[in-house]
Each structure stands twice: as C-alpha cells, then as structure tokens.
Amino acid sequence: MKALLIVDVQNDFLPGGSLEVPQGDSIIPVINNLQNHFDLVVATRDWHPANHSSFGSNHPGHKVGDTIKLDGIDQILWPDHCIQGSPGAELSHKLNQSMIERVFFKGKDPNVDSYSAFFDNGHKIQTELHDYLKKKGVTELYITGLAADVCVYFTVKDALQLGYATSLITDATKGVNMQPGDTQKALEDMADNGANLMESKDIS
C-alpha cells in the first residue's frame, strides 16, 4: 500500500511566517491535487513549547543561525516558530485537509528538536507514525511538504532506513536554504541514499 505524507505545511513556514520558506505556498495546490491519487494521506505538524531549546530567543548571547550543542547534537538556532496553540502552528487553510486521515505532532520535547516525522534528532524517541503506517500495511511512502532541506530531508532519510520504498515529489517541496545550496545538497543526498526523486505529473 502507498501513502502520501505531508510534512509541516504550517503558517509559520509560509510567506509572512516567522520561519518563512521562500515560495512555500506554491506547493500547496500541487499537494492538494496529489491527494486524490492516494488511499491514505497523513500529515505532520511541528508543535513546539515556547521554551523550546532550538529557539534562538531562548539562548542569550546567541542569534538565529548560530549552531550550538543540544543534548550532544549540533543544533541550528531558529526563530520562534510553530508554538503550540499559536496561529503559526496551524496547517495552512489553503491545504485541503478533508482527506488527511491523521496528523502527527513532533518537536514537543523542549530539550531536543525533531526534524523527522519519525524520530527526534537524537533518534531516542519515536513518533507514532511508523507504527501507524505499519498497521495500515504501508510499504511505499510519497513525501511532500516543508522544508526540503530540513524536516523533509530528515523524514526521507528515516523512511529509507525504516525500509519504505520512498519517493520525494520534488515539485511538492521547497527548501529554506539557511546556507546557499542547502536544498540541492539535500536532494542529492536523498537520491544517493536511495530515494526516488520524481514530479507530481508522474504519479498515476
């Protein structure tokens, strides 16, 4: 069985949001059209407490974009984003949510970030997504959403490690590019690790 996974299409990652992905809203119509091709559609949301350790505002003397050690892991400091209960944490109203069977929340632990839809960044805590997909009999995963070089990238890598036949739909994702070229490097690495990079027009 194949499933469509929509990663973090939330207001804070869209134009005007606190962690804006350039042209992030342009992928929403593509994702909406894709949903009709899948029997199972699931989504994720970043869901951070206000005191999350990945926020630059919680580290006096540091600024957004700095890298620190967080629980022994390199951590980029981000603007405050997707704070639990805030408008910025909501899925975009432009995203068709009627076909989304379940939404999985990540990044709830203030002491460790969770880019991937499957694990925290330390791979110590697993979300409910993998168990859910296994129970549904999913073997093929098609991944979309934001951002291509962060949460989508880590989700694709974990999906591959977990044994899913994993495809990234390239016109249904955009990167934040904290450093120039981040998205291209992420795409190349995903392909090198076994992901199938494809466009939405190739979904049948």
TrEMBL record:
Single GO biological process annotation from the record: pyridine nucleotide biosynthetic process
InterPro entries noted in UniProt: Isochorismatase-like_dom, Isochorismatase-like_sf, Isochorismatase_Nicotinamidase
Secreted in keyword set: no
Transferase listed as a keyword: no
Keywords, comma-separated and alphabetical: Hydrolase, Metal-binding, Pyridine nucleotide biosynthesis
Domain Isochorismatase-like: 3-201
Pfam family of the protein (one): Isochorismatase
Pathway membership, UniProt: Cofactor biosynthesis; nicotinate biosynthesis; nicotinate from nicotinamide: step 1/1
E.C. numbers: 3.5.1.19
GO molecular function, one term: nicotinamidase activity
Enzyme class: hydrolase
Transmembrane regions listed in the UniProt entry: none
Top-rank taxon, per record: Bacteria
Family recorded in the similarity comment: Belongs to the isochorismatase family.
Name this polypeptide is given: Nicotinamidase
Native organism: Marinilabilia rubra
Lineage: Bacteria, Pseudomonadati, Bacteroidota, Bacteroidia, Marinilabiliales
